[in-house]
Specification:
It is a single chain. By secondary structure, the chain is an alpha/beta fold. It contains 9 helices and 9 strands. The strands form 2 sheets. It has a 6-stranded parallel beta sheet, with helices on both faces. The protein has a 3-stranded antiparallel beta sheet with strand order 5-4-6. Helix 6 links the parallel strand 2 and strand 3. Bound molecules: carba-nicotinamide-adenine-dinucleotide. Carba-nicotinamide-adenine-dinucleotide binds next to loops.
């Protein structure tokens, strides 16, 4: 086994206060493309760039086109968690992992059994009417409607919006404060599967004051020099050894 992976296992075995901070790379091995890899959504061709479609102003001005892209690219309802999601849920159950902070919106950590998950960018699993706040299921948005999903409450007809944080929208303050708290108080922070280019999420790492900062990512990131251990490997290859 690679010596860096051996070192990683030693760190995990020696710590009972771990926090995991992850991004889209955690779910690529479940078949969900990330944004910035060569097969990622940003390198595919659409009528508009994905970062435009996934913005608040586009959602408001062009909801039809937004939902076309959303149904086509963001539907992970039938996707299964992979080995990384599963091992993280096991670490939580063993009492070693205290929290998962994720930029993902796919709900796969919860599907794997993780409980303490802070979703910085929301989740496709929750959907609310923009007029009356009525809750709608993800199945309603993805499968049971076409075009713009409309509220099921009588005489409402508001647009049902997924509870995902679009570009130009603020992050939920309560989620940020819980994430900051978890990072500030852990002794091992595992940062994985994220290009660390989306702010303010990536800035949360600055709150870490513990012993071991581990960075696992297929490609290099601008935070590599700050880490105690950097593993440029696919997450499945690393986590299967735990
Ligand atoms: P990103 O910018 O696309 O970066 C992903 C990173 O993961 C890249 O640096 C890759 O090299 C790396 N990577 C990809 N696959 C693996 C793997 N198997 N093992 C190790 N590393 C891997 O994505 P970020 O999360 O940094 O950007 C934040 C955005 C992406 C958030 O707003 C998310 O909501 C959004 N996003 C989420 C999903 C999802 O929910 N699954 C999918 C696509 C995008």
């Amino acid at each position: 086994m690679d010596s860096k992976i051996k070192n990683f296992i030693k760190i995990v075995e020696g710590s009972n206060n771990i926090v995991f901070f992850g991004g889209a790379g955690v779910s690529t091995e479940s078949g969900i493309p990330d944004f910035r890899s060569k097969d990622g959504l940003y390198n595919q061709k659409y009528d508009y760039p994905p970062e435009t479609i996934l913005s608040h102003s586009f959602f408001v001005s062009n909801p039809e086109e937004f939902f076309k892209f959303y149904r086509d690219k963001m539907n992970s309802l039938n996707v299964k968690p992979n080995i990384t999601h599963i091992k993280l849920a096991e670490l939580e159950q063993m009492g070693k992992l205290k929290a998962i902070i994720t930029q993902n919106i796919d709900g796969l950590h919860q599907k794997a059994g993780s409980k303490n998950v802070f979703e910085l960018h929301g989740s496709i699993m929750r959907n609310y009417c923009v007029e009356c706040n009525r809750v709608h299921t993800p199945e309603y948005v993805f499968n049971e409607t076409s075009g713009i999903p409309r509220c099921q409450r009588k005489r409402c007809d508001g647009i049902v919006k997924p509870d995902v944080v679009l570009y130009e929208e603020m992050l939920d303050e309560d989620v940020i404060s819980k994430a900051v708290d978890a990072i500030s108080n852990c002794d091992t922070l595992i940062v994985a599967g994220t290009s660390l280019t989306v702010y303010p999420a990536s800035g949360l790492i600055n709150y870490f004051r513990g012993n071991n900062l581990v960075l696992i990512n297929k490609s290099e990131t601008s935070f590599d020099s700050r880490a105690d251990l950097v593993i440029n490997e696919s997450l499945g290859e690393v986590f299967k050894n735990l």
